[in-house]
Design brief:
The complex is a heterodimer.
Chain A: E1 35-36, H1 41-44, E2 73-82, E3 92-96, E4 122-126, E5 132-138, E6 143-144, E7 152-153, E8 156-161, E9 170-175, H2 193-196, E10 202-203, E11 214-217, E12 220-222
Parallel strand pairs in A: 2-11, 2-12
Antiparallel strand pairs in A: 2-5, 3-4, 3-8, 6-7, 8-9, 10-11
Chain B: E1 36-44, E2 55-59, E3 85-89, E4 95-101, E5 117-123, E6 131-137, E7 161-164, E8 169-175, E9 185-186
Parallel strand pairs in B: 1-8, 6-7
Antiparallel strand pairs in B: 1-4, 2-3, 2-5, 5-6, 7-8
The chains are: A mainly beta, B mainly beta.
The structure holds fe (iii) ion (FE).
The site of fe (iii) ion has 3 residues of chain A, from strand 8.
């Protein structure tokens, strides 16, 4: 059996594909187990996006339009690292979110809440050599969805990361600490109980800027590498 | 292991428009070596309904079989302007389209080569974890010896094989469930 370059996720980390409380999973989750694949060059390489040019303004979602968006300005920062605590240098971090009223800049979002002409809701940043990233944005609102009666998504920011390989690709969501809606959210609760809290950011007083903005910290941990080379049969 | 892995969540329905403007359906600018191909990747749910709010990403080697990545240390040419990464949303008909070049073959760790393939990630509302699969090319004589296809039961192999639809257009239907459920990989 070939050693895997990237460790398999520990049991109890990711949601089950079929999480029936989240109704959309019923018709959109494979019923057969994934075929276990030895990692080859196809899996241990992946898009690094190093040549993607980022505009400095992309990390400040409050400055992408004519004026400041409505809502509570916040700083969201953290570190991209692997399971061994090693930084993922230069990681491309992409985020998207709704506005302060809970409405996405998206034609399909029919929520009866105002669009904010000064808030688009998409951002990108490249982490530094130590994996540190930082965004300035506004706190997203809660929004209703049709999953069940009186269903509301807790405030969240969507995150997308590539990491060093095809095998490390991750899309997730960041939540805010102590949100009372977390207890009722089938998407958050699709994550096994022992791992859920990792999706909550923490309030960061140290990074909070006086007279300006609260800060939240969200570290993102991608799959770590096995110590042994992958071709040790 | 000192740090615990961040769990996965769905991309949700509203990424389009706000997920930053990094869509790249055209992978190979003029001048990139290789056979030009178009890919049409259709996404269906368990009941056969199209998935119009999905996101498909592809990752592939260039026509020489070289990945643009430091882990690929083989002495094969890299093509300027060709990263090998594409990202496209599915449209109302559930189809994501890419323009690229046919990839070359890449090695199998125990020796020999894999058949030419494109690596695919599938994201959608209702999909809580990234689903990884592959696209192979119908009629490729190397399919019979591909070590990954050999891991898949014969009856399910066709779910991974794109068909040529005339003029360089290759189509593949990905089914998230149902009788034609696609083979997904845990790599
Ligand atoms: Fe959302």
């Amino acid at each position: 059996m070939t050693e895997q370059a990237y460790r398999r996720p520990a049991a109890g980390t990711h949601p089950a594909n079929l999480s029936p409380e989240y109704k959309s999973t019923v018709a959109r989750s494979p019923s057969k187990p994934a075929v276990i694949l030895p990692q080859t060059l196809s899996e241990i390489t992946g898009p690094l996006r190093r040549e993607e040019r980022l505009d400095a303004g992309e990390s400040d979602l409050t400055k992408q339009r004519m004026a400041a968006p409505l809502g509570e300005r916040i700083i969201v920062q953290g570190r991209v690292l692997d399971e061994d605590g090693r930084a993922v240098p230069q990681a491309l971090v992409e985020i998207w979110q709704c506005n302060a009223a809970g409405r996405y800049h998206h034609p399909g979002d029919q929520h009866d809440a105002p669009l904010d002409p000064n808030f688009y809701g998409g951002g990108r940043v490249r982490a530094d050599e130590d994996g540190n990233y930082r965004f300035v944005t506004i706190k997203p609102g809660a929004y209703p969805w049709g999953n069940h009666r009186n269903a509301w998504r807790p405030a969240h920011i969507h995150f997308s990361l590539f990491g060093p390989a095809f095998a490390t690709r991750l899309i997730t969501q960041m939540y805010f600490p102590g949100d009372p809606l977390l207890a009722f959210d089938p998407i958050y609760n699709s994550v096994p109980a022992g791992a859920r809290a990792r999706l909550q950011s923490s309030f960061d007083m140290e990074a909070t800027q006086p007279e300006w903005a609260l800060a939240y910290r969200f570290d993102i941990v991608l799959r770590g590498r096995n110590a042994t080379p992958m071709e040790n049969a | 292991m000192s740090h615990a892995l961040t769990p996965s969540q769905t991309i949700g329905p509203f990424y389009f428009g706000t997920l930053a403007n990094t869509y790249r359906a055209e992978l190979a600018p003029p001048g990139v070596a290789g056979e030009r191909i178009e890919l049409a990747i259709a996404l269906h749910d368990r009941d056969g309904a199209v998935v119009p709010d999905g996101l498909i990403e592809i990752w592939q080697a260039n026509s020489h079989g070289r990945y643009n990545h430091p882990e690929d240390r083989r002495n094969l040419p890299l093509d300027a302007g060709f990263e090998g990464f594409g990202r496209a949303s599915t449209d109302k008909a559930g189809v994501a389209r890419f323009g690229t070049v046919r990839p070359g073959r890449v090695p199998w760790p125990q020796g020999g080569l894999q058949a030419a393939h494109v690596n695919i990630s599938v994201f959608a509302r209702g999909v809580l974890n990234r689903l990884a699969t592959r696209l192979y090319f119908d009629g490729d004589p190397a399919l019979a010896e591909d070590p990954v296809l050999k891991l898949v039961e014969a009856a399910r192999r066709p779910t991974l094989i794109a068909k040529r639809d005339g003029g360089g257009l290759w189509t593949l239907s990905i089914h998230l469930g149902g009788a034609h459920e696609t083979v997904f990989f845990d790599g």
